């Protein structure tokens, strides 16, 4: 099961859809994401702190727990290689002009495709719209607040 960084972060922070994501993650098989998520998830913790939704120490605690989970193999983070970045760029350049993706989103989609995943778990509407360009589908059900 491939999750983007937003879904991983929701496992740790308390948001309206976090309980559903925790249930999904706990019931899931091997949990994959890109190594890109290592930085992105911690950026979410920092954003929560910056916006006042999480105390500084709580954000640091969340990061420590997340990094511990990565070390313990709870999350399987796939390295970002040059060849993956080239493939991501090639798919983007062959996509219709109405497809909007940030670099990190393209990395996630390409990584999921390389892992032979059929779907990517995200609630990012841009990623879901671009998923077919990468040979992927969104989840059968998108978890929303």
Shape: globular
Any idea of the CATH topology of the largest domain?
A: Rossmann fold
| Order of helix and strand elements from N to C terminus | EHHEHHEHHEH
- Helix count? 7
Could you tell me the mean pLDDT? Answer: 90
What class would the helix/strand composition place it in?
mainly alpha
CATH second-level architecture of the largest domain: 3-Layer(aba) Sandwich
The CATH top-level class label of the largest domain: Alpha Beta
- What fraction, in percent, of the residue positions are helical? 40-55%
Question: How many extended strands?
Answer: 4
Oligomer: single chain
Low-confidence stretches: none
**The number of domains:** 2
How can the largest sheet be summarized? 2 strands, parallel
CATH homologous superfamily descriptor of the largest domain: 5'-nuclease
List keywords for this structure.
145 residues, mainly alpha, Rossmann fold, 2 domains, two-stranded parallel ribbon, two-stranded parallel sheet, 7 helices, globular
